[in-house]
Design brief:
One of its GO terms (molecular function) is antioxidant activity. The chain is of the alpha/beta class. It has a single domain, classed as Glutaredoxin. About 25% of the residues lie in helices and about 20% in strands. It is built from four helices and nine strands. It has a five-stranded mixed sheet with strand order 5-4-3-8-9, covered by helices on one side. The chain has a two-stranded antiparallel sheet with strand order 1-2. A two-stranded antiparallel ribbon has the order 6-7. A hairpin with a 5-residue loop joins strand 8 and strand 9.
Length: about 180
């Protein structure tokens, strides 16, 4: 498998996906008065750890919004899988579906095949999280090859509050070449 590295500071690609509320989203484009966006890629309906993580995000959503960061979550699930997942999710932020293999590769995500038809019926992305700044650049990213490694949300929130404070003049980290 060839994995393209998605680098901090890169422009986030303009990927459009349908949402479970019959709309569409452009992943890297903030909405609702926010000037930054957090994009959370989750494995899909079949993953109980993803469900828990997305519900944790909902609990902190207002604190992210106070920092000027809106949230969207996306997966490779089909429309019916994504809509079915909503019964377990308490998410009021947009949930997109239909992430293609090409889009997963564009984002530098790890991709897995299902272990069985009971898990799911398609390749899916392992977790990824991107925070896109007001210039469309990836300010912070975390890409995992399994469901057990994800940023702790309260630590992420605290770090983003530090980054967003203009007095700190905090640059995008990890850009040494």
């Amino acid at each position: 498998m060839t994995l393209s590295k998605f680098a901090a500071g890169d422009q986030f690609p303009k990927i459009q996906l349908p949402t479970v509320n019959d709309g569409t989203i452009t992943l890297g484009t903030p909405q609702n008065g926010a000037d930054w966006r957090m994009v959370v890629v989750y494995r899909g309906k079949h993953c109980p750890l993803c469900t828990r993580y997305l519900n944790e995000i909902e609990k902190l959503k207002e604190q992210f919004r106070q920092l000027g960061i809106d949230i969207v979550a996306v997966s490779a699930d089909s429309e019916s899988q994504a809509r079915g997942h909503m019964a377990e999710l308490k998410a009021s932020y947009p949930i997109g579906y239909g992430l293609s293999i090409e889009q997963m590769q564009q984002l530098g995500l790890y991709i897995s095949n299902p272990r069985s038809p009971q898990e799911t019926d398609h390749p899916f992305a392992e977790p990824g999280l991107y925070v896109i700044n007001d210039k469309g650049q990836v300010q912070v990213l975390d890409i995992s090859n399994g469901p057990f490694v994800r940023p702790e949300l309260e630590v992420l929130l605290s770090g983003l509050a530090f980054i967003r404070n203009p007095e700190n003049n905090y640059p995008i980290r990890g850009t040494y070449e």
